[in-house]
Amino acid sequence: MKKNEQITLYQLLWSRKRGFIIYLVASFLPILQQLLMEGLLGFSFTLLEARTRTEISSRIAILILGMLAPVAFHWVSRRMRIGYMRDILLDVRKRGFRHILSLPVRVYSRKSRDHYLSLLVNDLNIFENDFFLSFLNVIFNGGLTVLVLGILIFLDWQYGLACVLATLLLALLGRGFQKKIVTLKEHESDANKDFSQQMTNVFSGLEILRLNRVEAPFKEKSMSYVTALETIKMRFNIFDYFQSGTMETLGLIFTVLSFFYVGSGLVAGRLTLPQGIFMTQIAQRAIWGMVQVFPHLNKLRASQAIFDRIVSGSPDEWEAPAPLGTKPFSFNRNLEVNHLSFSYEEKPVLRNVSFKITQGEKVLLKGPSGSGKTTLLNLLAGVYTSYGGEISYDDRELRAIDPAPLNRGIAEVYQDVFLFEDSLRNNITLYSQYDEREIESAVDRSGLRDLVERLPLGLDTPIEENGKNLSGGERQRVSIARALLKRAVILLADEATSNLDETLGRHIEATLLSLDATVISISHRYYEGVTEGYDKVLEIDSGVVSVWRPDDYFKETG
User: Fold this and answer.
1) In what order do the strands lie in the sheet with 334-344?
2) Distance of alpha carbon 20 from alpha carbon 141, whole angstroms
3) Is residue 354 a contact partner of residue 291, using CB atoms and an 8 Å limit?
4) What contacts 389, CB < 8 A, 6 or more positions away?
5) What does the DSSP assignment read for 120-168?
């Protein structure tokens, strides 16, 4: 997934052409509003030149009516902009969510869930708070500066040219601040992710921390993340104030020089008082407009970098660790593992492992805790591809296979079962369409029938956050029902019966062994008269795999 294949922020803005044009028109209305106010200010000094009461009254009436227009401009501009802002922010949220869902498992697994949650919460909040405010200010101040400079050149070309040079100097200075602003904003995004991940870890284990009275070290560690986040925010604010203060100081110098020039013109009689006031005011707008443009333009660039992270991911997601395969997936003959080696964080887990599994076989994976059993399942499922050796399905190397059909052909039953806040039915079907008879069969074969009959709304009963209203065994059975319903050609089970009682565990293991699919199961349980039904046992010890006949293995290990 290359970055340049992703939509840019400005392509997204232009994707809603009509709304974007309306937004631009609405953003220019405040420019007209500002010029009208400056014109009214200059016009107000004509009251000093009025000779009759009628002239005074008419000019006062013009001023009063003129002052109502800016209020109307502001209201109309806001109404025209708000709908487009809402639609674009919704588009960003959807694209960010779709980006995460589209990641191949091998890419997604390189980051924690909290990283992705931070993208959809913290980074979106940064983008929402900064982008449209800065975008409006860039249009307003930039447009106002250009228009004012044109008016000044028309009124007094020497004065106008001096203002052009002043604004160009400010523009060059503002450009110099850009890189630092963008970098600091990206650091804030990273600190937000670290903070979110730390808080999630603490809150997930809060009961354990409290019961063991070890809150203090975790509190100290959490506070260090808070301090780091606030320090980065403070650095950004300090630098932002510095760039604003520097440009404002230069703007003040140019304003003083502008007053001096206009004052000289008034004294020499080259300018009338209304003309002088008008020129001074709009010259200040040009200078201060440029002062405001670049701080907001720099924030706009930072917002664009945040947008890229939300919809395209961080740089290490733009390219997968290895090219994604394109060959079709099939498993009609055998799965072969030849000289497989794998290390995790430079620690060897599997060493030169070789074995063969024929389609339809039932394989039991044994070994001490931490020996690499779950890692092997992940390797066979294509979660990790940075291995040595080969994993082949029907003579097609795993890394050359398209991940989409591979994922459809493999079902997993893991200890850690995630459930959505939705109905039991949707948690079993995972929002796919199945015939009702298929769903009922999966319910029966997974041992969920008693639960379904006990729940008030049966399969349509809502499940609480991550299945809080279900027991561990019931959650495990939902996972098994998912696998049965998927009808995958390979089922990978990691301690599928670990949370079940003896009777139900025996029933589930017998169900797994009866499936018309290849089953590779990790289990520490032994169900006499059932577990012997496996075709072979793979034992992992010290990174080496030994292949056993079940009778020999259970006789040897007792």
Assistant:
1) 347-358, 334-344, 388-393, 396-397
2) 18
3) no
4) 337, 338, 339, 340, 341, 352, 353, 354
5) IIIIHHHHHHHHHHHHHHHHHHHHHHHHHHHHHHHH-HHHHHHHHHHHH
d(C-alpha 472, C-alpha 241), whole Å? 54
Torsion-angle region of 339 (φ positive above 0: left; ψ -120 to 50: alpha; else: beta): left
CA 125 to chain centre: 11
Q: Which of 533, 529, 528, 505 is nearest to 360 (CA)?
A: 533
Alpha helices of 103-123 — where are they, by DSSP H? 105-108, 113-118
| Distances, alpha carbon 394 to alpha carbons 327, 364, 411, 513, in Å | 12, 21, 18, 22
Report how far residue 92's alpha carbon sits from residue 125's, in angstroms, rounded to the nearest whole number: 11
Interior angle at CA 94, CA 93 and CA 95, nearest 5: 95
Position 389 scores a pLDDT of 92
CB 41 within 8 A of CB 278: yes
| Helix axis angle, 472-486 to 502-514, nearest 10° | 10
Which stretch of DSSP H or E encloses residue 384?
none
Structure tokens given for 459: 């399969």
Token code pair at residue 11? 């392509």
Token pair 């228009």 is found at 147
Distance CA 41, CA 37 (A): 6
Residue 351 φ/ψ, nearest 5 degrees: -130, 110
Query: Which pLDDT belongs to residue 318?
Result: 45
From first CA to last CA, the distance across the chain in angstroms is 51
The residues that bridge with 504 in the sheet, in sequence order, are none
Residue 103: partners with Cβ closer than 8 Å, 6 or more residues away: 1, 313, 317
Q: Is the dihedral of CA 101, 104, 109, 111 positive or negative?
A: negative
> What are the structural domains of the chain?
3-318 (1.20.1560.10), 334-557 (3.40.50.300)
How buried is residue 314: exposed, middle or buried, by Cβ count under 10 Å (0-12/13-18/19+)?
Answer: middle
Q: Give, for 5, the enclosing helix (H) or strand (E).
A: none
- Mean of all residue pLDDT scores within the chain: 80
Task: Tell me the one-letter amino acid at 421.
Answer: E
Dihedral of CA 87/92/95/101: which sign? negative
523: left (phi over 0), alpha (psi -120 to 50) or beta: beta
Tokens of 355: 């074995």
Q: What is the pLDDT of residues 31-45, one digit of tens each?
A: 777 777 777 776 777
Burial class (CB in 10 A: 0-12, 13-18, 19+), 183: middle
The list of the chain residues with pLDDT below 70 reads 1-6, 42, 70, 104-107, 109-110, 112-113, 174, 178, 201, 204-215, 218, 291, 313-323, 415-416, 466, 499, 558
